[in-house]
């Protein structure tokens, strides 16, 4: 079952998929017109998911969130339930103060797996049934109701996810929000801004304060997050496009090809050219 609502005026789209044989996203250069945020629930047995070419465990009764430009495929899509929406349907940035999730639920460098206890499973089951009913009901308030339902879904799973990240209820949650905003800023500027100081200034914090805050919440360091995001994009460009290493170097904000190549090799163990040669030919042909 694949249910969808579209707004021809804004281009907004929301999809719900259940018992579908394929929830996969093709390499992002081919799928550039369908930029969906994705929330996937695995109510069935343990399986695997391949995200940007890397296979990961997707345990039973967990939720996985994926950004719009990530590629993925599942071992058994038919046993999953998935929600997808684009920015035109619901902009998480505009609604950040309400849903409190920007840069946290949807991340390109850390794939957030949310474990669901029995109570959470039952709530999601009920919420899924309401989504299905409203997606099948066409009337003048359908769009507004589905936005409320999507907001409710995001708020609920954000609350579940934060339980595993916030070390103490005594910690001011505003400090936790800085991490979300940092991740959002990195997503917006990583191709041109590689230094922590740039993001620290936008957040009115010192680089040292940011580093200490990320350490407090058991997160990667700010510099590692920036570097990992650059590497992830480099791998995508090398795997799914025929752009030259020179072109990729400049697209990712580097002025020197040799410097970029050394940076890539230090992080990945191989040069950009060697990494591309390791990619299956059929992948580049997609």
Short description:
The chain has 286 residues and is of the alpha+beta class. It contains eleven helices and nine strands.
Description:
Strand 1 and strand 2 form a beta hairpin. The two termini are 26 Å apart. Helix 2 packs antiparallel against helix 3, helix 4 packs parallel to helix 7 and helix 7 packs across helix 10. The protein has two domains: 161 residues, Jelly Rolls (Sandwich); 116 residues, Orthogonal Bundle (Arc Repressor Mutant, subunit A). The chain has a six-stranded antiparallel sheet with strand order 1-2-8-3-6-9, covered by helices on one side. Strands 5-4-7 form a three-stranded antiparallel sheet, with no helix packed on it. It contains eleven helices and nine strands. By secondary structure, it is α+β, with helices and mostly antiparallel strands.
What are the key terms here?
alpha+beta; 9 strands; three-stranded antiparallel β-sheet; Jelly Rolls; six-stranded antiparallel β-sheet; Arc Repressor Mutant, subunit A; 2 domains
What gap, in angstroms, lies between the N and C termini?
26 Å
Major sheet details: 6 strands, antiparallel
Strands of the widest sheet, in order across it, are 1-2-8-3-6-9
Per DSSP, the total helix count is: 11
N-to-C order of helices and strands: EEEEEEEEHEHHHHHHHHHH
How many domains? The number is: 2
Strand content is: 15-25%
Taken from the alpha-carbon principal axes, the silhouette is globular
Average pLDDT, all residues = 82
